[in-house]
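for the recovery benchmark. tokens below, seq after
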């Protein structure tokens, strides 16, 4: 069987930077050398810590955003950043609280969100995640495997407590509901909601102030992302703190504007696909033009063109009955 190494990192085909940030953890488990077009991520030494609610901090700079939930019962982490950031992340978490990290819940299996699982598991944390992260590296089991290595994942990185639906943690005077949402950024996304603190964390379903990446090859879809955002909007209010997978801590109004952008760009690309246009012609129509000032800032991880390409791959593949 021919192993398509670039197939390990669907993001890598789309954008060199994304290959670094969005590769499933299996890529790091199985391929010591990253794709030739990508430099390995530099170890992170300085992280930014933000106190968003009593007992809830957000750490940026370790890869994807990390949520630290601390209190009398110990620490729960949502996501663990890149493996190369583990040492810095451990230091940052320790500065917030000296209590042990009891649980790690991963929003999905990409390396910039689950790469530090192993470091915290070694320290005794119980890693929780979607069932498919054990067997499929976060990919959609129904989707054709991009290569033979897609099912491989490091033993120490895999969740030991898994769910196909939802799980609740009752700690630190609050209740954290972790609920699976189908086929959104990937096939294995979990959305977190703290009931008392009134905080939600959406993982890479939400990229605040920038275009998202949809990992179609791992089972993600635009419709699933919109549905997950709608579900969050329905359960939040003007006071709710909304933590994105990438970008600054946000709120309901910004999440609603992001939803509007997803729907509008999706409609334009869908209509173009239905007229038989190919991706290059669709890009020529600049379907994101009206949103670029807000979401297409220079230096963003996902350029407008890459976002449109991922929407196209999703919609075109469904049209041909993937
Ligand atoms: Zn991701």
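predicted aa per position
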């Amino acid at each position: 069987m021919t192993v398509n190494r670039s197939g390990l990192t669907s993001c890598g085909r789309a954008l060199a930077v994304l290959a670094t940030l969005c590769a499933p953890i299996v890529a790091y488990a199985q391929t010591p050398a990253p794709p030739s077009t990508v430099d390995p991520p530099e170890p992170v030494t300085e992280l930014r810590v933000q106190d968003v609610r009593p007992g809830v901090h957000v750490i940026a700079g370790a890869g994807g955003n990390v949520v630290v939930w601390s209190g009398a019962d110990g620490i729960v982490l949502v996501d663990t950043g890149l493996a190369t950031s583990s040492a810095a992340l451990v230091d940052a978490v320790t500065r917030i609280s000296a209590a042990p990290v009891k649980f790690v819940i991963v929003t999905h299996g990409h390396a910039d969100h689950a790469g530090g699982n192993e470091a915290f598991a070694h320290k005794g944390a119980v890693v929780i995640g979607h069932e498919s992260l054990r067997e499929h590296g976060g990919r959609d089991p129904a989707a054709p495997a991009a290569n033979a290595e897609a099912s491989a994942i490091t033993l120490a990185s895999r969740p030991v407590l898994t769910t196909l639906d939802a799980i609740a943690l009752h700690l630190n005077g609050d209740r954290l509901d972790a609920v699976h949402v189908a086929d959104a950024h990937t096939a294995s996304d979990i959305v977190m909601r703290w009931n008392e603190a009134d905080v939600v964390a959406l993982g890479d379903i939400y990229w605040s102030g920038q275009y998202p990446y949809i990992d179609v090859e791992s089972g993600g879809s635009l419709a699933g992302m919109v549905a997950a955002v709608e579900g969050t909007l329905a359960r939040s209010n003007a006071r709710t703190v909304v933590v994105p997978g990438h970008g600054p801590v946000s709120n309901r109004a910004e999440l609603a504007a992001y939803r509007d952008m997803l729907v509008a760009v999706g409609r334009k690309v869908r209509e173009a696909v239905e007229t038989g246009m190919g991706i290059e012609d669709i890009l020529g129509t600049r379907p994101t033009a009206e949103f670029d000032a807000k979401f297409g800032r220079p230096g963003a991880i996902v350029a407008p063109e890459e976002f449109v390409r991922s929407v196209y791959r999703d919609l075109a593949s469904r049209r041909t009955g993937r």
